[in-house]
């Protein structure tokens, strides 16, 4: 059983930055795919960014390209999402997720491929 704990969310002004962290316990981190998703009020959950837990093989949503960076520290079983130039439309609950079968399919934005999810963390960007 994999458990995920997100941290680093909060309130920031437009144009500011936040760095989200997601610590994983259980399983083999280096074999995982790690993803970040978000869900704004009244909207469906959407893909933000993903990568292989051990590094590389990154994938970004168009809305994240050029502003967000996903990275990982395999020694800490932790994945990060550095978010810069934040906009009010980035306001959402952000979720970290694990794809246990990365070796079979590579990095994916498909939510159905992710097996474990964190509890979510609020990010609010004020205008």
Instruction: Give the rounded overall mean pLDDT.
Output: 96
Level of helix content?
A: under 10%
Low-confidence stretches are none
Task: Using the CA coordinates, give the radius of gyration.
Answer: 13 Å
Task: Quote the beta fraction.
Answer: over 45%
What string, H for helix and E for strand, traces the elements in order? EEEEEEEEEHEE
Category from helices, strands and their pairing? mainly beta
Cα separation of the termini: 40 Å
Number of helices: 1
Number of strands: 11
Q: How does the major sheet shape up?
A: 7 strands, mixed
- 3D shape: globular
Description of the molecule:
With 127 residues, the chain is mainly β. Helices cover 3% and strands 48% of the residues. The chain has 1 helix and 11 strands; from the N terminus they run βββββββββαββ. Strands 2, 4, 5, 6, 9, 10 and 11 form a 7-stranded mixed beta sheet that branches. Strands 1-3-8-7 form a 4-stranded antiparallel beta sheet, with no helix packed on it. The N and C termini lie far apart (40 Å). The mean pLDDT is 96.
